[in-house]
Known about the structure:
This protein is mainly alpha-helical. The protein is built from four helices and two strands. It has a two-stranded antiparallel sheet with strand order 1-2.
Amino acid sequence: MAGALLGLVAVVFAALGSHAIDMQGQPALRQIWQTASLINLFHSAALIGLAALARHFQSGWLIWGAGSLIVGTLLFCGSLYLRVMVESATTALAPLGGMILIAGWLLVTLGLLRGARVNPAG
């Protein structure tokens, strides 16, 4: 469900960035918004894929990885979105969010490399 919700947020915020938020003459702000939108959308799709994997495999690594991707996406993208919407906002949480995203992908990778057990009920 988190992947679908993040996907919804990504599409809504992409539309806001294209139609409702004035970034004319500010290409740096537009680039920040586009980066946040892309990271948000790609990670929402990844989370939907991980949810499908989790139905068939029992892996704490995948679960922790997915949780890290959720938290990392919220911190990273949220910080960037806020920076564009509120001029005085800082992107101080973006690096932390990025590190959590990296950790999440490492956890997912370890889960796949370690070979998750097949869930007979999935």
